[in-house]
Amino acid sequence: MARFSGGKAPFLRITDSGEKGTKIIMRDFIIGLLPVVLFAWYKNGIMVYIEGNITFMEMLYPLIFIILGGLLSVLFEAVFFYITDKSARNVKGIMGKLKLSYGAIPGLLLALFLPLYTPIWVLMFGCFMATIVGKMLFGGFGHNIFNPAILGGVAIMFTLYGVIGKAGGFLNASEVLVDSYAGATPLAILSSSKAIDYNTIVAPYGNLWNFFIGTIPGSIGETSFLVIMISYLWLSIRKVINWSTPLIYVGTVFVLSWIIGMVNGEAGIWFPVYSILSGGLVFGAVFMATEPVTTPKNSLGKIYFALFIGALTVLFRFIGNFPEGVATSIIVMNIFTMPLDNVTAVIRSTGIKKKTIGKFAFLTILLLLIMVYAVIKSMNLYSLSAIFVGGLF
Amino acid sequence: MILRKAKGIHIDGFKKMSRELPLREYLDPQFVYIPLLQQNSPLKKVVEIGSDVKIGQVVAMREGFGAMPIHASISGTVTAFKKVWHASGKMIEAIEIENDKLSRLDDSILPEINIKILSQEQLIQKMRDGGLSGLGGAGFPTYIKYQTKCPIDTIIINAIECEPYMTCDYMLTVKYPEKLLKGLSYFIKAANARNGIIAFKSYNQDIKNVLEPLLDKYPNIELRELKDVYPAGWEKYVVEQVTNKTYVKLPSEAGVIVDNSATAICFADMVDNNIPLISRVITITGEGIKQPQNFYVPLGTKVSDLIALAGGYVEGLDPKISWYLAGGPMTGRAILIDELIVNDTLGAVIVKGIPKDNENPECLGCGKCSDVCPVFLTPTAIKSAFDRNDVSLIKNLNADKCMQCGLCSYICPSRIEITDFVARAKTLMAKGA
Questions:
Q1: Cβ-based contacts of A24 with chain B (< 8 Å)
Q2: In chain A, is it the N or the C terminus that has fewer CB atoms within a 10 Å radius of its CB?
Q3: Is residue A296 part of a domain?
Q4: What is the model's pTM?
Q5: Residue A357 is part of which domain span?
Q6: Model ipTM?
C-alpha cells in the first residue's frame, strides 16, 4: 500500500513538456519584438552614423534607449514588490516575483512608440505610469485594465508632449536635414493641412514605398510596415497572438479610410494604403491590440474589439487633439473590455437566438454609428461643401 | 439556426504503450469486492455473510431509477462486507467474495435457444436482468435508454475512446469484432431502429481492418471514421458528427441511441448465453507501470493484483510525486491509496509522475481556453462571474453546457485549474436555481 498524490483533472497539460506555457509565450513575444528593435536601431542609429551625422556613441543611443525602457520598468516593479510585499524583501523573493510578472515588456513597448529624442526622465515618468499605475496598482500581471505601455504613452502625450518636441522630437539627425519633413510625422501633416492631398501628405516623404519600408519620420519602432509584418508572422505562427485581430483592425481602418477618401473626392487607393502605413497603426495592431490581458478573451469578443478600435482609430484621427488614433482608441476600448467580453461570451455560447439577438444588434449598430460618425466628421474637416452636413452633428 | 457542431483538438494519445502486449485474461482472483454503488445509487445487498454464490447469481439490487440486479462475478462464499476504495474517489461498502476456484455457473447462464424470435421487449428485459450498464465510463443503465418513447432511427456504437492512455475498448473490439457486430444487431432490434453505425477514430485504423470483412453479413451496419481529436468520444460530438443532428438532453431526441463498444460486446454474450455483466477490460498503464497492458477481469478484482501482474511499479517510483488515476487522464480522478477495485465504470488505472515544472503565473488572458472549448463557452468569463457570485451571469454564460472534458485546463499556459472553476460555477448555478 502506498499513498499517492492528489490533484485535479485533467492530469495531462500542454505545459507538461515545458515547451509551452506562459513563460514561453512571453519569451516568444520578446523574440517577436527583436526585428522591430533592430530596425529601429538601424534606421535611427546605424544609418545615420553611416551618413556621417552622428558619432559612434550616439549611434548606440536608440538601442540603449529601448533597453533602458525595459530595464526601468523591471526596476520599478522590483521596488514596488520590495515596498508592498514583506516576503519579497530579499533577492530570491524579488526574483521569484519578477519571474512571474514579465515586467520588461511594457517598458520595451513604451520605448518603441516614443519619439527618438524623448528625454530619459520623460521615459522614466512613462515607465512609472506604465508599470506602477497601469499594472501594479491594479494587482499586477494579469489584473491590469489598461494596456500598461499605452497608458504610459498616453500619460506622456497628455502632459509632456511639448517637452519632447523641444528636446528634438521625432526626427533623427539625418531627418532634420531634410527640409520637406518640416518637423512632423505624416499624420500630423494630415491633421494640420486638413486635406486629403497626395502632394502634401505623401510627396514630402518620397512615396508610399518609403512608408512600407519604414524610412519616414515617426516614433522609434513604429515606422516600418515590412519589419512589423515579419514580427506578425512569427507571433502568429508561434500562437503568441491571435492572428485575426491585427488583420481585422487594419482592414477596418483600410476600408473606412477608403470610404472617407471617396466621400471627400479622392478615390485613389493610395489614401487607404497611406492610412494603414502611417501613424504606428500596424505596430499598435500587432503588439498592442493583441495584448491578451486587456482585450476580450473569447474569439467573438476579439473580433468586435478589433472592429471597434478600427472605427475609433479613424474617428480619433479626425476629431482628436492628437494626430494619432491608435493609442487613444485602444485605451478607450480597454475600458469596455470586461462588458464586451461578457456580452460576446453570452452571444457566442448561446448562438444568435431570440435571447441574444438584441445584444448582437446593439453591438453592431453601435459599431456602424461610430463608423458613420467618423465619415461625417471627416467631411466636416476636409470638404467645405460638407460643413453644413457635418455641423448638424 | 445553422448547427454549430461541437469541436475538438488533437492531443497526444500515449496509447502505444498499453497496446504492445496482448489482452490478458485474469479470471480467478482470490477475492472480489462488489461495491454497493452503481452510478450514484446505493445498492441493496441480497446476500448474507457466509452465503454461497455462483457466477452470475444476483447479490445486490439497484432500486428506484434504473432498478436492476447486480451479479456475482466469481463463485465462492461471501466472507465480509468491507469498505473499499472505489473509482468515485470515496470508500464504498462492498461485498467480499472469496473464490472457490471452481467457476460454478448460476443456473440462469445457459445458451439461448430462441435468439431469432426474441421480441423487442424481451431484449430490453434481458438488458435489465443482466444488469447491463454503459461501460464507457458513465455507467448509465442501458435498458433505460431503450425504453425511450422517441422513435429511434440509428444505433451508434462509440468505439472512439478519445481519452489518452486508454486502450481497453480498442483491445476488446479488435479481439471480438464478430461479437461487436452481433451485439449491435441485437441493439438495433431492441430499439426497432433502421441501421447501426460504428464510429471509430482515424487513429485506430485496425478497427476498420478487422470489422470491414465481416460487414457483408450485416447490411444495415456501416463504419464511420471520425477525426483524431479530443473529445471525439463525447456522446454529443459523436451524434453531431455522424448524423448532423443535435439534442439538448438525450440522444434519443435526435432519433439516436449511443452505446459503447464494450457494452455491445457484453450484450452479445448476454443475449446468446444469458451471461450478465460480470467482467470488463481495464487498461493498466502509465509511465509508472513496468509493463503496461490490458486485462480482462471479473468485476470487483483488486487493481493491486493487476499492477503486480503488470510487473509492478517502475523502480524508483516515488508515490509522493506520482498520480494514481482512476479513469482517463482528462476526466479521471486521483486516488490517494492504491487499493482500488475494478467496477463497471473503471476503464483504466494510470500511474504517472507529476510534471516537475508547475509554475502558476496569473491568467494572462490569452483566451486559448475559450478557443478550444467544444461547446463555445468562455471559461474565463465564467470564472470571473463565479468569483463575484453572479449566478445570473453564470446562467447566461451557459455554464451548464460544460461537460468537464478538461480541455481548458489542458491548454492553459498558466496551469490554472479552470475546468474546476467552471465545475464549481455549475454547482453554484444548480444550487442557485
A1: 413
A2: N
A3: yes
A4: 0.89
A5: 196-217+241-393
A6: 0.87
